[in-house]
Every structure is written in C-alpha cells, then in structure tokens.
Amino acid sequence: MLELRPDCERCGADLPAHLGGAFICSFECTFCAQCAEALDEQCPNCGGELLDRPTRAPDLLAKYPASTERRHKT
Description:
The protein is α+β, with helices and mostly antiparallel strands.
C-alpha cells in the first residue's frame, strides 16, 4: 500500500492524500506538479519516472491513513 506522503520533497508543499497533483516514482519519492515539471518528470533521488500519484477514497483514507512523516529537507 502506498504511504501517500504529505509533502513535496523538493519544496515542502502540502500534498493531501485525497487530492490530485502529486507525483511519485517507484520508490514513492513524492513531488508536487510544479517540481515534477521542473525535474522533467524524473526523480532526482533514483532517476525513475515521476507519475501521477493516485488518490485514496475518503472512506479508505479513514481506515488506511496517509503518512504524516514529512520528507522535505530545508
């Protein structure tokens, strides 16, 4: 199951699990749309392709909550 990380690793923007606009690679590195575009949809950590992260339905989000661990490094 995806962690659905709460923020962009590059700029720190909030990325709620119930909304679109997040991009992930196969290792779940997570970026906002603006950063993914600036990175040419290529993960700077592993070199993998950044793809649209799926959203989680509200009822399932309550049962299987998203991660709260922020990954942005200042």
